[in-house]
Amino acid sequence: MQNMNTDESAGAPFRSRAENLFDEHRQAIFKRTDRMFAVLMLVQWVAGIAAALWFSPKTWAGSQSQTHIHVWAAIFLGSVISLFPITLTLLRPGETSTRYIIATAQVLMSSLLIHLTGGRIETHFHVFGSLAFISCYRDWRVLVPATIVVAADHFLRGVFWPESVYGVLTVSNWRWLEHAGWVLFEDAFLFIAIRRNVSEMWDIAERTDEIKGLNEGLETRVAERTAQLVTSNEELTREVAERKQIEKQLLHNAFHDGLTGLANRALFIDHLHLALGHAQRHETHQFAVLFLDLDRFKTVNDSLGHMAGDKLLVEIARRLERVMRPGDTVARLGGDEFAVLLDDLGEAAEAETVAKRLQRELALPCDLGGHEVVTTVSIGIALSSSEYHRPEDLLRDADTAMYRAKKLGKARHEVFEHAMHASAMDLLGLERDLRWAVERGELFLQYQPIVSLDTGELRGFEALVRWRHPKRGVIPPAKFIPIAEETGLIIPIGKWVLGEACRQMRQWQLLSPAHAHLPMNVNLSGRQFMQPNLPDQIAEVLRETGLDARCLKLEITESVVMDNIETAIRTLEQLRALGVELSIDDFGTGYSSLSYLQRFPVSTLKIDRSFISRITERDGTAEIVSTIMKLARTLGMDVVAEGVETEQQRAQLRALECEFAQGYYFSRPVDSDAAEACFLRSLPSVAHLLQTESCRVPPVHTAPDAARAVHATPAALQLRVESTQVRV
Amino acid sequence: MKPKKNRMILLATGALWILIICAGIGVLWSYARTPGVAATAPEQWPSDSPLRHSADGATLVMMAHPHCPCTRASVGELARLMAQAQGRVKAYVLFVKPSDFPDGWEKTDLSASASAIPNVTVVRDDEGVEAARFHAATSGQTMLYDARGKLLFSGGITGARGHEGDNAGRAAIVSLLTTNESGEKGTPVYGCPLFAGSAECVTGKEVVRAKHEH
């Protein structure tokens, strides 16, 4: 139910928002109407004075006059009627009592004005106007005091001055009813109007409440959504910042080396490109590219660990930055390779000067966590010229020059020459062709006998791989084996050699079962040896070829074994478990640890040819060889001397009680047919066999080998073939 | 307690305010209800008067002060009276002009209003000579004589000072003119004194006494 009398509900403890809205609205109306009446009172007061002055300014007595009492009444009584409600309007706006006083005052003002205007019937309309104005409060209760005042006025007039109300005519005796009727009609009309108006106000309050509720819900949702958006925006901003940081980092990483912070290859190429462009626009502009490679980085890395290696690289980078000019570009291309772009050179010689300065600076000792390391650097220099159009070409040529410097002994610098490029291209061609050599059947094996120095009997063969290039002829192993090692082709090549040697040996054994105990020596490269499945591969080859494992002797260089001793020992033991014989090749040139040597399950030591070639000289080599043999005997190993080429060497070895040897003095490496012929027909004396025509077929090997072969004397061939060895 | 005290103060102030206003209005009522000096009008039309009464019908004479605000109501009532009489009466309105005022002083909106009433003759009464002949002392004093010059009525035709509306004076005159009957022979006159120095007001008892004397 709508509450028309809001003041009673103002103090209610629990009120709906619609009620509050309604009350707020009505209170605003009350205050607004209070203010309106305050102004209206002032206007009426002034109007009353004006009316008094107009209608009855003076009262006369003949020729004498004085101010009319109406004027004083208008001034003073009007002020009393007006100022009290005006004061309440100021002090207690919107109060119920204020409204009642105002309503009373307004009707009293009507009464005063009617009186001042001599009771003119027209002035009576002021009463109805007052009631209409009072209804502006939209509070029907305010009509009550106004009506009471009117009634009281008429009652008093009726008692004390009846003719002023009821008239004097007989019919007019009921005029008070007419008066009352009109007033009540007015009141009823206003009451209904106020009720309807208040009802509409209620509707508006309820609709406003509903709208406010919806609006609040909407605002709540907007606030929540805004909060979500703010959160999302913050997250997005953070993500964008992170992404920008990542992009920045990626961009930096894209052009800089992560370890040293130097420019990387891409940025170096870019700078090189700019330098090339500048040089093409200005003929006098010169620059140079220095390609640096640390000479002993791998040793440091392997011995002190990768952390130390990284520290060394960082230290090298700092030194390079310190030494170079601000305009120069220093880059790390990868691994232990660095490059420097010397831009705007005065003359070409400056590049070499800078290279020397770099070598001096980088050669200074470097402290790596308590380990003092001294490293050298090989530098290749490529000078700018009009022939260069691509940065990669310059870098390539500097790299080529660096390789030349490495080849020439390291710790030096070389300036690029065109001949280097041709050589490099040649090597590149070899690498390309080598990839197809196995498939095309261009590789073949030669076999060098291993003989007993005591009996001259053949004690086995060493298998040696050769490459017959369709255009270049036979390529020496020293030329293509390093390429194969570097490119990884040594793995398939080694596998092929192993299989072919085993197959060949098995074939010979089938032809001559009496010599089935002779072993075939096959070299294993470092890469092959490091394969985790090497024992499986060996076992598979033996199974496929049917060769007895005891007839296969694998030769491993001591440096390969010493690189990772524990793994090597484990691999060697696995191989030994297969029954395969093991041999340390090129013994004496590496860094064998004697403490480990006894742990190696090897049966043979092969003394490097460098000792044999000087064994006749009085430089102590013979004593070394003697020591090695004593060591081998102590450890229960056989000794094979490699590279025996002269009778003096053979005699010396014999004098030192060396058991086995191989070399041109006995036989150069021969092809399979010749070796087979020797194996079958010259038994039991290899010397006898080697005197036959088939064994005299000139072996296919390199010029130095051929030269040595020429020097092989018939006397040297008095040995008996007992072994075949294959060198890869 | 403070709101209650405030309410009491407000209530007391309101009551005082009402009382003051009632007192003021009471004074006004008292003033409005206080009549002027009633005339003892001559029973026969004064023979020395230059004014002639109508031989065919009644003649009404009203004495008026040209500047009396109360007389405006008397003139208004005269207009209604003349309308109700429907030509049965001839009327004179005498505007008293003291000698110490220049000519034209008497020509006011009041005289203009009176002039506009049909069958009404406005006459300037210098020094109030005519008013004295009719023994009038208060503005608004009205007398009615029949065709033979005999006084039929003497008094005011307003219910109060300056108040228009039904009143006993007008009702009596209209009754005399239309039905030849009269309830009241005299009524209080509400208006300004016509002459300086005369009593402005008399008490209600004096009015009653005047009625009895009349």
Description of the molecule:
The complex is a heterodimer of chains A (728) and B (214). Chain A has 27 helices and 19 strands. With 728 residues, chain A is α/β, with parallel strands linked by helices. In chain A, the strands form four sheets. In chain A, strands 10, 11, 12, 13, 14, 15, 16, 17, 18 and 19 form a ten-stranded mixed β-sheet that branches. In chain A, strand 4 and strand 5 form a beta hairpin. Chain B is of the alpha/beta class. Chain B has six helices and six strands. Chain B has helices at residues 2-32, 71-85, 109-115, 129-133, 168-179, 204-213; strands at residues 58-64, 89-97, 120-126, 142-145, 151-155, 186-187. In chain B, strands 3-2-1-4-5-6 form a six-stranded mixed β-sheet. In chain B, a hairpin with a 5-residue loop joins strand 4 and strand 5 (151-155). In chain B, helix 2 runs parallel beside helix 5 (168-179). The longest helix of chain B is centred in the first third of the chain and has 31 residues, at 2-32.
What's a quick, concise take on this entry?
Chain A is an alpha/beta fold and 728 residues long. Chain B is 37% helix and 16% strand.
Task: Jot down its keywords.
heterodimer, A: 728 residues, alpha/beta, ten-stranded mixed sheet, five-stranded mixed sheet, 27 helices, 19 strands, 58% helix, disordered N terminus, disordered C terminus, B: 214 residues, six-stranded mixed sheet, 6 strands, elongated
Give the CA-based shape of chain A. Answer: rod-shaped
**Binned strand content of chain B:** 15-25%
- Round the mean pLDDT of chain A to the nearest integer and report it: 84
List segments of chain B where confidence is low: pLDDT < 50 over at least 5 consecutive residues.
199-214
State which percent range the strand residues of chain A make up.
5-15%
H and E order of chain B: HEHEHEHEEHEH
Largest sheet of chain A: 10 strands, mixed
Distance between the termini of chain B: 66 Å
Count of extended strands of chain B: 6
**Which secondary-structure class do the elements of chain B indicate?**
alpha/beta
Radius of gyration of chain A: 61 Å
Count of runs of 4 or more consecutive helical residues of chain B? 6
Provide the spatial order of strands within the biggest beta sheet of chain B. 3-2-1-4-5-6
Q: Give the total of beta strands of chain A.
A: 19
Count of helical stretches of chain A:
27
Instruction: Give the overall shape of chain B, derived from the CA principal axes.
Output: elongated
